[in-house]
Amino acid sequence: MRLDANASDGRIRSMPEPLPINHRLTIPDYELAEQFITAGGPGGQNVNKVASAVQLRFYAQRSGVLGPEVKQRLLKIAGRRATKGGEIVIDASRYRTQERNREDARERLRDLIEEALKPPPPPRKKTRPSRGAVERRIKAKKERGATKAMRGRVED
Protein backbone atom coordinates (compact mmCIF):
# COMPACT_ATOMS: atom_id res chain seq x y z
CA MET A 1 0.00 0.00 0.00
CA ARG A 2 1.45 3.37 -1.05
CA LEU A 3 0.21 6.49 0.76
CA ASP A 4 -0.59 9.83 -0.82
CA ALA A 5 -0.30 12.58 1.80
CA ASN A 6 -0.88 15.34 -0.77
CA ALA A 7 -4.66 14.97 -0.75
CA SER A 8 -6.33 18.36 -1.09
CA ASP A 9 -8.98 17.64 1.56
CA GLY A 10 -6.47 16.55 4.22
CA ARG A 11 -7.54 12.91 4.17
CA ILE A 12 -5.04 10.13 3.70
CA ARG A 13 -5.37 8.27 0.43
CA SER A 14 -3.61 5.12 -0.63
CA MET A 15 -2.89 3.44 -3.91
CA PRO A 16 -3.99 -0.13 -3.22
CA GLU A 17 -2.54 -3.34 -4.59
CA PRO A 18 -4.31 -5.13 -7.45
CA LEU A 19 -7.45 -7.01 -6.37
CA PRO A 20 -7.55 -10.67 -7.49
CA ILE A 21 -11.14 -11.77 -8.22
CA ASN A 22 -10.55 -15.31 -9.48
CA HIS A 23 -7.74 -17.25 -11.18
CA ARG A 24 -8.34 -15.43 -14.49
CA LEU A 25 -9.36 -11.91 -13.42
CA THR A 26 -7.52 -9.28 -11.40
CA ILE A 27 -8.59 -5.65 -10.98
CA PRO A 28 -5.49 -3.47 -11.53
CA ASP A 29 -4.43 -1.03 -8.82
CA TYR A 30 -5.05 2.07 -10.98
CA GLU A 31 -8.79 1.24 -11.17
CA LEU A 32 -9.06 1.32 -7.36
CA ALA A 33 -8.69 4.14 -4.84
CA GLU A 34 -8.75 3.98 -1.05
CA GLN A 35 -9.44 6.75 1.37
CA PHE A 36 -9.10 6.47 5.15
CA ILE A 37 -11.61 8.44 7.19
CA THR A 38 -12.77 8.60 10.79
CA ALA A 39 -15.59 6.20 11.52
CA GLY A 40 -18.88 7.20 13.11
CA GLY A 41 -20.74 5.63 15.99
CA PRO A 42 -19.60 4.60 19.47
CA GLY A 43 -15.93 4.22 20.30
CA GLY A 44 -14.87 7.27 22.32
CA GLN A 45 -11.49 8.80 21.61
CA ASN A 46 -10.44 6.02 19.26
CA VAL A 47 -13.27 6.65 16.81
CA ASN A 48 -12.73 10.42 16.89
CA LYS A 49 -8.96 10.43 16.45
CA VAL A 50 -8.08 7.43 14.32
CA ALA A 51 -8.90 7.21 10.62
CA SER A 52 -9.82 3.52 10.76
CA ALA A 53 -12.76 3.52 8.32
CA VAL A 54 -11.99 2.80 4.67
CA GLN A 55 -13.74 4.08 1.58
CA LEU A 56 -12.84 1.92 -1.43
CA ARG A 57 -13.69 3.25 -4.90
CA PHE A 58 -13.74 1.12 -8.04
CA TYR A 59 -14.07 2.90 -11.37
CA ALA A 60 -16.35 0.24 -12.89
CA GLN A 61 -17.54 2.23 -15.92
CA ARG A 62 -13.96 2.91 -17.05
CA SER A 63 -12.67 -0.58 -16.21
CA GLY A 64 -10.70 -2.24 -18.98
CA VAL A 65 -10.90 -5.75 -17.52
CA LEU A 66 -14.70 -6.12 -17.31
CA GLY A 67 -16.98 -6.57 -20.31
CA PRO A 68 -19.94 -4.23 -20.93
CA GLU A 69 -22.55 -6.80 -19.80
CA VAL A 70 -20.64 -7.47 -16.57
CA LYS A 71 -20.30 -3.73 -15.91
CA GLN A 72 -24.04 -3.27 -16.39
CA ARG A 73 -24.88 -6.17 -14.03
CA LEU A 74 -22.31 -4.92 -11.50
CA LEU A 75 -23.79 -1.41 -11.38
CA LYS A 76 -27.28 -2.90 -11.03
CA ILE A 77 -26.21 -5.24 -8.21
CA ALA A 78 -24.31 -2.43 -6.45
CA GLY A 79 -27.53 -0.42 -6.06
CA ARG A 80 -27.00 2.73 -4.01
CA ARG A 81 -23.27 2.03 -3.72
CA ALA A 82 -22.93 2.99 -7.41
CA THR A 83 -22.58 6.66 -8.33
CA LYS A 84 -23.98 8.35 -11.43
CA GLY A 85 -20.45 8.45 -12.84
CA GLY A 86 -20.19 4.65 -12.78
CA GLU A 87 -18.05 4.33 -9.65
CA ILE A 88 -18.71 1.80 -6.92
CA VAL A 89 -18.05 3.10 -3.42
CA ILE A 90 -17.67 0.62 -0.56
CA ASP A 91 -17.60 2.05 2.98
CA ALA A 92 -16.10 -0.24 5.62
CA SER A 93 -16.10 0.75 9.29
CA ARG A 94 -17.19 -2.52 10.89
CA TYR A 95 -13.86 -3.18 12.65
CA ARG A 96 -11.60 -1.17 14.95
CA THR A 97 -8.46 -1.43 12.85
CA GLN A 98 -7.79 0.19 9.52
CA GLU A 99 -6.20 -2.96 8.10
CA ARG A 100 -9.21 -5.16 8.94
CA ASN A 101 -11.63 -2.58 7.47
CA ARG A 102 -9.45 -2.46 4.36
CA GLU A 103 -9.65 -6.25 3.98
CA ASP A 104 -13.42 -6.11 4.58
CA ALA A 105 -13.95 -3.47 1.85
CA ARG A 106 -11.85 -5.43 -0.67
CA GLU A 107 -13.69 -8.65 0.21
CA ARG A 108 -17.09 -6.99 -0.29
CA LEU A 109 -16.04 -5.54 -3.66
CA ARG A 110 -14.70 -8.96 -4.71
CA ASP A 111 -18.06 -10.55 -3.77
CA LEU A 112 -19.96 -7.94 -5.81
CA ILE A 113 -17.79 -8.50 -8.88
CA GLU A 114 -18.03 -12.30 -8.55
CA GLU A 115 -21.82 -12.00 -8.43
CA ALA A 116 -21.80 -9.81 -11.57
CA LEU A 117 -19.59 -12.32 -13.40
CA LYS A 118 -22.21 -15.05 -13.04
CA PRO A 119 -24.43 -15.27 -16.12
CA PRO A 120 -28.00 -14.03 -15.59
CA PRO A 121 -30.63 -16.73 -15.04
CA PRO A 122 -32.64 -17.69 -18.13
CA PRO A 123 -35.98 -15.90 -18.47
CA ARG A 124 -38.95 -17.68 -16.91
CA LYS A 125 -40.96 -19.78 -19.32
CA LYS A 126 -44.64 -18.84 -19.12
CA THR A 127 -46.95 -21.74 -18.30
CA ARG A 128 -50.70 -21.93 -17.79
CA PRO A 129 -52.05 -23.05 -14.42
CA SER A 130 -53.41 -26.59 -14.45
CA ARG A 131 -57.14 -27.20 -14.38
CA GLY A 132 -56.88 -28.56 -10.82
CA ALA A 133 -55.00 -25.45 -9.64
CA VAL A 134 -57.66 -23.17 -11.16
CA GLU A 135 -60.46 -25.21 -9.55
CA ARG A 136 -58.73 -25.11 -6.12
CA ARG A 137 -58.29 -21.34 -6.39
CA ILE A 138 -61.96 -20.79 -7.35
CA LYS A 139 -63.13 -23.11 -4.54
CA ALA A 140 -60.99 -21.22 -1.97
CA LYS A 141 -62.40 -17.88 -3.20
CA LYS A 142 -65.97 -19.19 -2.88
CA GLU A 143 -65.28 -20.41 0.67
CA ARG A 144 -63.75 -17.05 1.67
CA GLY A 145 -66.75 -15.26 0.15
CA ALA A 146 -69.19 -17.50 2.06
CA THR A 147 -67.33 -16.86 5.33
CA LYS A 148 -67.49 -13.11 4.77
CA ALA A 149 -71.18 -13.27 3.78
CA MET A 150 -71.95 -14.87 7.14
CA ARG A 151 -70.44 -11.85 8.93
CA GLY A 152 -73.43 -9.66 8.02
CA ARG A 153 -75.98 -8.24 10.48
CA VAL A 154 -77.88 -10.68 12.62
CA GLU A 155 -81.60 -10.33 12.02
CA ASP A 156 -84.05 -10.85 14.92
The SSE order reads EEEEEHEHEHH
What's the quaternary structure here?
single chain
**Overall geometric form:** elongated
Q: What structural category do the secondary elements indicate?
A: alpha+beta
CATH architecture: 2-Layer Sandwich
Query: What is the CATH C level class, in words?
Result: Alpha Beta
Number of strands: 7
Largest sheet: 5 strands, antiparallel
Number of domains: 1
Helix content: 25-40%
Secondary structure elements and pairings:
Blueprint: E1 2-4, E2 12-15, E3 19-20, E4 26-27, E5 32-37, H1 44-49, E6 53-58, H2 68-78, E7 88-92, H3 98-117, H4 131-149
Antiparallel strand pairs: 1-2, 2-5, 3-4, 5-6, 6-7
Helix pairs in contact: 2-3
What attributes characterize this protein structure?
single chain; Double Stranded RNA Binding Domain; five-stranded antiparallel sheet; two-stranded antiparallel sheet; 4 helices; disordered N terminus
Quick overview:
The chain is an alpha+beta fold. It has helices spanning 44-49, 68-78, 98-117, 131-149; strands at residues 2-4, 12-15, 19-20, 26-27, 32-37, 53-58, 88-92. The chain starts with a strand and ends in a 7-residue tail after the last helix.
What can you see in these coordinates?
The protein is an alpha+beta fold and 156 residues long. The chain has a single domain (2-117), classed as Double Stranded RNA Binding Domain (2-Layer Sandwich), CATH 3.30.160.20. The chain contains four helices and seven strands, in the order E-E-E-E-E-H-E-H-E-H-H. A five-stranded antiparallel β-sheet has the order 1-2-5-6-7, covered by helices on one side. Helix 2 (68-78) crosses helix 3 (98-117). The radius of gyration is 26 Å and the shape is elongated. The protein starts with a strand and ends in a 7-residue tail after the last helix. Mean pLDDT is 81; it is low at 1-6.
